[in-house]
Amino acid sequence: MLEFAEGIQSARKTLFVEVILPLAISRNYTYRIPFELNSDIAIGKRVVVQFGKSKLYTAIVSAITEAAPEKYEAKYILDILDDRPVVNQRQLVFWEWLGEYYMCNVGEVMNAALPTALKLASETKVIINRDFQYDKSQLNDKEFLIVEALDLQPELTVSDIAKLLGQKTVMPILKALFEKNIINISEEVAERYKPRKRIYIRLNPVYQNPDALQELFVILEKRAPKQADAVLAYIKLSRQQKTVNKAELIEASGSGESSIKSLIEKDVFYAEEKNVSRLGYTEDDEEISNFILSEAQETALKDINKQFKQKEVVLLHGVTSSGKTQIYIKLIEAMMATGRPVLYLLPEIALTTHVIERLRIYFGSSIGVYHSRFNDNERVEVWQKVLNNEYKVVLGARSSVFLPFSDLGLIIVDEEHETSYKQFDPAPRYNARDAAIYLANMYKGKVLLGSATPSFESYYNSRVQKYGLVELNERYGGVQLPLTEVVSVTEETKRKTMQSHFSSVLMQDMAQALQNKEQVILFQNRRGYAPVLMCKICAYTPKCINCDVSLTYHKHSHKLHCHYCGYKEDSPTICPACGSTHLEYKGFGTEKVEDELSVLMPDVRLARMDLDTTRSRNSLQNILNNLEEKKIDILVGTQMVAKGLDFADVTVIGIINADSLLKYPDYRANERSYQMLAQVSGRAGRRGKQGKVVIQTYDPNHRVIKQVIDNDYADLYFTEMEERKSFKYPPYYRIINLDVKHKDPEILYNQAEYLATELRKHFGERVIGPEAPLINRIRNYYIKSIMLKFERDTISIVKAKVIIREVITQFQTTRLSKGSIVQPDVDPY
Distance between CA atoms of 798 and 817, rounded to whole angstroms? Predict the structure, then answer.
């Protein structure tokens, strides 16, 4: 009796929870727990709460307390959505750090971190599932009301349904209808995830006996020959693979579903429904292959392990095709042997899909993949498997740092120099490489940064011995670095040897490669057909109505596109300004390169790899597969082709216009140009044959081009670092950018000047601007940028951020701030 009384007393205890809402608000809110839910609440679980007058959101419990909020009366939570936490406490610490370091709110971090299918909003739309037959008499009164309303209206929001039923807590009812397959819920709703199920077929063990099986065949061949075909097909399939599912058995036997159903009813087959992964792995993928490291790789591996004893982070600087991936595999195997999981980060989805095929050879279904091309169900599936510690290795793009790891022994950041690791919009504007270093530190794990062209920040940290450094200076298998030839476009134009945008040297090298049954990659760092459409008479150029940029012509759609906001309009045939018909296209992108090459080399199999051709789910993987299977002779692409692709028969690389990289107005232009040119060049001659790289430029004597030819990263680094030091740029200084945005340029001017003046009171000459950026209007918002530069050693960046936040908050309390957006960006480049 005493124990029972104590249980009642505990259940009646008044508890409050602090929750993180997926909103850009500066503090967490506190809600009250109904007594009956006291025993169910836990940190990391999702709860449904009302915020504001009527909005419903999924929130994450970040703390449980008995202390009521002092400034306001706490509302009750409406429901608990989970039986167990979906976020662990270390993740919550990580979210807090990201919010503080990148100067955003923890709600914005939550919004980026959680898969969409784990989030809920009151605007979530509910529709009836017209493909499913159900019995309305089996519904309770409230379920019936919702279904009747959905029969009359095509869709309802969660708010509409709450009003219809006259209650706030509608999620359990919607969840029940969803699980019965009666309704579909839009992608914002929390319980959208449903596991994929597949029916597997097993032969009754009685028929493992050859005599019994023979007897069965005799009976079936007389009475039901299609069923006999199904049994025969099963036997053939079961010899080739461990499991046989119903769909592939129907296809292999040609017998139809009714035959399989009859065999199940006769107990010849047993059917078992299982949850299966959407991620393309089966139990047959378990074999692990082996390989032998070269002497140079063995030395590098030993050095990495040695340095890991003293350093938390090691930089592996290895030339292209030096076999860095094989070293990663050995490190992963060693870490797996200790029972600790590994996170393998890659900068691009393009690279992820390519590398996963190689890693599956070694790790089979113990490897998980996570990136933004997955649909919501797949992302939740990976999330839950990581939560359950089912993966030994997770491979993914930058968002993988948000997964709910319970432990991490090693994080590998491949191509660590890539700008794709930086999130630009929306907040948090984090760099996954830097976030990974903090994350590994939380778990007392190690970080390996790998690159043939390291970022100056990482190389600087290794030189000042903050990081370890291991160098790998020879290609795997003794393959030589490619020959590089620089072609002056000016000279070839004078001699009239240019064919469209292709020099005689490039045309000859491509023809030779194709004759040898080899492949070619052409790099042009701009997509579309032509960047500018211009009137020859009055120089009119169509511009985006929302952004301060000219529109790019795309031939496949015959439209002008804005690459910033997505605006499109028909390409004019007559100049809207002067009425002239003399319109011409200036410049060229990948689409035009592909189009003109198809005229010059009509028998060649061409493909293009850029954002336009890789939008659909499997399009990118199909292009890579076709290249590997030699169904493509020449691949034309943007920077996607520069990142880690490894194909045996690619021997010629053509860089169509190197000047578009070299002339970019940015202090990192030379560093980025070297990285891009070296990485693209590294795709050539990776197996056995020495490759050839042709760089077309108007400035063949440019210092960076010479450094690329000589493979002289050190010369680039020391030359650039002198300038960085003189002009106060990273890695000697830290940069924080503030972008101030407003729809009225005059109001924006006053707002930005006010903010800059207030900041100068604290930081003096460290504040630069406000200045208009290169593109000063995007999506109808005008932009002014304020740059703050801080010395690494003599000022506390933590204190500086606190002051900047205070100045922004003070500005937002003034009337002047009305209609403005202030976006801090820490380490913007």
Answer: 25
300 against 379, higher pLDDT: 300
807 CB burial (10 A radius; 0-12, 13-18, 19+)? buried
pLDDT, tens only, 448-486: 999 989 999 999 999 999 999 999 887 766 667 778 889
Instruction: Give the separation between CA 416 and CA 315, rounded to whole angstroms.
Output: 9
Q: Which amino acid is at 332?
A: I
Q: Is the peptide bond before 426 cis (omega within 30 degrees of 0)?
A: yes
Q: What is the DSSP string of 214-270?
A: HHHHHHHHHH-HHHHHHHHHHHHHHHH-S-EEHHHHHHHH---HHHHHHHHHTTSEE
> Is 308 exposed, middle or buried (CB count within 10 Å of its CB: 0-12, 13-18, 19+)?
middle
Q: What is the pLDDT of residues 226-279, one digit of tens each?
A: 888 888 888 888 877 777 888 788 878 877 788 888 888 888 888 887 655 434
596-647 pLDDT per residue, tens: 898 899 889 998 888 777 776 667 777 877 887 788 899 998 877 766 566 6
Structure-block tokens of residue 824: 């801090």
Give the separation between CA 591 and CA 693, rounded to whole angstroms.
21
Candidates 619, 601, 602; CA nearest to 610 is 619
Look up residue 645 and give its two tokens: 């692709």
**Residue 104 marked ligand-binding:** no
Per DSSP, the three-state class of 213 is: helix
Collect all residues with Cβ–Cβ distance below 8 Å to 367 and sequence separation of at least 6.
281, 356, 359, 360, 391, 392, 393, 394, 395
Contact assessment for residue 693 and residue 484, using Cβ atoms and an 8 Å cutoff: yes
Contact, 62 vs 43, CB < 8 A? yes
Q: CA 660, CA 697: separation in Å to the nearest integer?
A: 9
Asked if 196 contacts 274 with a C-beta cutoff of 8 angstroms, the reply is no
Residues 668-710 pLDDT 10s: 889 998 988 888 777 765 555 778 889 999 999 999 999 988 8
> Between these two residues, 186 and 611, which has the higher pLDDT value?
611
Rounded to whole angstroms, the Cα distance separating 619 from 625 reads: 10
- Sign of the CA dihedral running 33, 38, 42, 43: positive
Give me the phi and psi of 16, to 5 degrees please: -125, 150
Amino acid (one-letter) located at 145: L
Instruction: Tell me the pLDDT band of 31, cut-offs 50, 70 and 90.
Output: very high
Between residues 124 and 777, the one the model is more confident about: 777
Phi then psi for 814, rounded to 5 degrees?
-90, 160
Nearest-angstrom CA–CA distance, 760 and 511: 61
- Which residues lie closer than 8 Å to 386 by C-beta, 6 or more apart? 368, 394, 403, 404, 405
Cα separation, 442 vs 95, in Å, equals 12
Q: Look at residues 427, 426, 373, 431 and name the one whose alpha carbon lies nearest to residue 401.
A: 431
User: Could you tell me which of 169, 86, 81 has the C-alpha nearest to residue 122?
Assistant: 169
pTM of the model: 0.78
Round to the nearest angstrom and report the end-to-end CA distance of the chain. 66
Which residues are CB-neighbours of 523 under 8 A, at least 6 positions away? 637, 638, 639, 641, 642, 653, 654, 655, 656, 680
